[in-house]
Specification:
The chain is built from four helices and 16 strands. Strands 1-4-5-6-7-10-11-12-13-14-15-16 form a twelve-stranded antiparallel β-barrel. The protein has a domain of 219 residues. Strand 14 and strand 15 form a beta hairpin.
Length: 329
C-alpha cells in the first residue's frame, strides 16, 4: 500500500512538473538576419610616381593622383551590374585639366570564369587647340599657334571604348585573363584602335605573411593595333596636306609590364616596370608630346624627326586604397 501511494505521489509530481513546464513562457527564436543589400559602392584612391596607360605616360613622367567611385548592383551571386566614375591628374599637349572616366557594364561569372562587358568614356575637359600658323594651311578659328616643337593638338582629346574581359581563376594562387578594347577614334585622332592584352597574376599564400598582409606578382602583354589619323594631325606634321593624304599612319605597337605588390588590409603598394616597342619618332607622332625634341627620329608618321620619350621604359610606384561602402558601415 505504501508502495502504491508513493508511486501515485511521484506520478502526481511529474504531472505537476510537466504542467508547470508547459505553462512557462518560452523564448522566441532569434529573428533571421536581414538579407544583405544588393547595392554597394566601391571606393578607390591612389598616388603614383607616373600615370602610365598602355605603356605611355599620361602625366609627362610626373606624379599623378586618382580617385573614383563605382556603384554596384548584385542581382545574384553570378551576375553584377555596375557604373563608375574616376578622375586622374594628367599632363597632355592640349593642356586638358584632368582625365575623368565614366564607365559601366555587367559582370557574369561561371564558376572559375569571370566575364566583364562594358563601355568606357575618357573625358579630358579644358583642352586647347594648337594648330594656327602652319604654312600653306588655313588657320582654324580659336586655335593657338603650334606647340614649341611643331606638334599640334586638338582641343578635344576625349574618346570612348567598348571592352570585353575574361579572367580564369585556377586556384587561390593563380589567375589568367584576356581583354579586348575597341575605339573608332583613339584620343579623338580619327584612328581606329583595337587593344588586345593578356595577363597573369600569382597571389602569395596567406601563410607567407602576418595577419592582414598579402602579396602578389603580375605581368601584362598587350598589342595596340592603330590606323591613320584624320587630316588634322597629318597637316600639322607636314605643313600642308598633299593630295590624297589621309593623315598620319600611326604605328601599331606592343606594350608590356611586370611588377610586385604588397597589400595591407585596404592598401596596396605596387612597384612596376612598363615599356613599349615604339621608337621615339613614332611615339611623338602618336602622342604629340609637347616636351619632345630633336630632329633625327624620322619615320613615315613623323617626317619632322622630333622624338618623344613618353613611350619608353618607366619604373613606377603606386600606393592605392580600395574598399566597399558595406565594409565601413
Amino acid at each position: 500500500m505504501k508502495r502504491v501511494a508513493l508511486t501515485m505521489v511521484l506520478v502526481a509530481g511529474l504531472g505537476a512538473s510537466s504542467a508547470m513546464a508547459a505553462d512557462m513562457a518560452t523564448k522566441a527564436p532569434p529573428a533571421p538576419a536581414p538579407a544583405p543589400s544588393p547595392w554597394d559602392v566601391a571606393i578607390t584612391a591612389a598616388l603614383m610616381t607616373d600615370y602610365n596607360f598602355r605603356g605611355i605616360t599620361q602625366s609627362a613622367h610626373s606624379p599623378s593622383a586618382q580617385a573614383g567611385f563605382e556603384l554596384r548592383y548584385t542581382q545574384s551571386p553570378t551576375l553584377q551590374y555596375y557604373a563608375g566614375i574616376s578622375g586622374e591628374s594628367i599632363d597632355f599637349p592640349n593642356h586638358a585639366a584632368a582625365e575623368i572616366d565614366y564607365y559601366g557594364g555587367f559582370r557574369p561569372t561561371f564558376d572559375k570564369l569571370a566575364l566583364d562587358f562594358g563601355f568606357w568614356y575618357y573625358d579630358y575637359p579644358g583642352g586647347q587647340c594648337f594648330y594656327n600658323g602652319v604654312p600653306g594651311t588655313t588657320p582654324l578659328a580659336g586655335c593657338n599657334p603650334l606647340l614649341a616643337n611643331g606638334n599640334v593638338a586638338k582641343e578635344t582629346a576625349s574618346f570612348y571604348e567598348w571592352y570585353a574581359k575574361a579572367t580564369y581563376t585556377v586556384n587561390d594562387q593563380w589567375a589568367f585573363g584576356i581583354q579586348e578594347w575597341y575605339s573608332p577614334s583613339v584620343s579623338n585622332t580619327g584612328s581606329v584602335g583595337w587593344f588586345t592584352t593578356g595577363n597573369g597574376t600569382f597571389t602569395a599564400p596567406s601563410t607567407w605573411f602576418a595577419s592582414g598582409w598579402g602579396g602578389y606578382a603580375s605581368a601584362d602583354l598587350g598589342y595596340w593595333s592603330l590606323g591613320k589619323s584624320d587630316a588634322f594631325y597629318g597637316t600639322g606634321a607636314l605643313g600642308a596636306t598633299p593630295a590624297g593624304f589621309a593623315g598620319d599612319p600611326y604605328k601599331s605597337f606592343w606594350t608590356w609590364d611586370a611588377g610586385l605588390g604588397v597589400t595591407y588590409k585596404a592598401f596596396t603598394l605596387d612597384l612596376r616596370y612598363y615599356d613599349t616597342d615604339l621608337n621615339k619618332g613614332d611615339c611623338n607622332a602618336f602622342t604629340s608630346d609637347y616636351t619632345a625634341g630633336g630632329s633625327s627620329n624620322v619615320t613615315t608618321a613623323n617626317p619632322g624627326g622630333v622624338g618623344s620619350n613618353w613611350c619608353g621604359a618607366a619604373y613606377i610606384a603606386k600606393l592605392s586604397f580600395a574598399t566597399n561602402l558595406s565594409s565601413i558601415k
